[in-house]
Amino acid sequence: MNWPTGTTLAGKVALVTGGSRGIGAATVRALAAQGAAVALSYADSADRAEALAADLRHAGTQATAYRADQADPRQVSDLVQAVAADFGRLDILVNNAATYVTGRVDDAEPDLARLDRQLAVNVGGVTAAVRAAARVLGPGGRIITVGSMQASRAGFAGVADYAATKAAIIGYTRGAARDLGPRGITVNVVQPGSVATDMNPPDGPFADVQRAANAVGRFGRPEEIAAGIVFLAGPAASFITGAVLDIDGGYLA
Questions:
Q1: What is the pLDDT of residues 81-111, one digit of tens each?
Q2: pTM (2 d.p.)
Q3: Which residue among the candidates 100, 162, 172, 251 is catalytic per the annotation?
Q4: Which GO molecular function entries does the Swiss-Prot or TrEMBL record give (predicted)?
Q5: 141 exposed, middle or buried (CB, 10 Å; 0-12, 13-18, 19+)?
């Protein structure tokens, strides 16, 4: 997708965690199209992250990829500090990195290691990033976390642990909005619905069920989620904080 270019974010520096693919990569491109310098983090997809950063630099955008494991609070804090030091500031944090692990609560042999890592990434990684960003963001700062429609309506069996992690960040976001509001920093959540990515392909085994659950009868595109994130990152959203923006094709309608 060719993003409409603009200057709403000119002079701003944004960090997108998990920015090498899917919604994260679309968000990186959308922020850059509005004039922001962009840092993106990755855990495993080094080639994709470096290629995206190089592509943006070729187009004239300041962009750098950083490796960080979102399950490690120290690495997350170091990531935020490194971005602020390398770019000279940080204005926008997008908490996009997450993992998705399914498993029924009555499983006889649950994969506790994977479930614990999901909690560490989806909740611990977000809280560590917000705390670190709160030390460097100035007035007009923006924090946006990518949640999930399943925090509001599970809808499917086997998603209790994942839904709990996404519900937790809503409560954390609302509390952080109270803490940071007096400083002119907004904190919000975007909740995507079924989005076509390599982790959730529209021709996957559960694709038809997902399409049928949406009012519009289709998967969303990563760019449609990124558009909501860019809006919340911009000056027009300065009076929106502690909010949850559903971009779910009517799944919750």
A1: 999 999 999 999 999 999 999 999 999 999 9
A2: 0.95
A3: 162
A4: oxidoreductase activity, acting on the CH-OH group of donors, NAD or NADP as acceptor
A5: buried
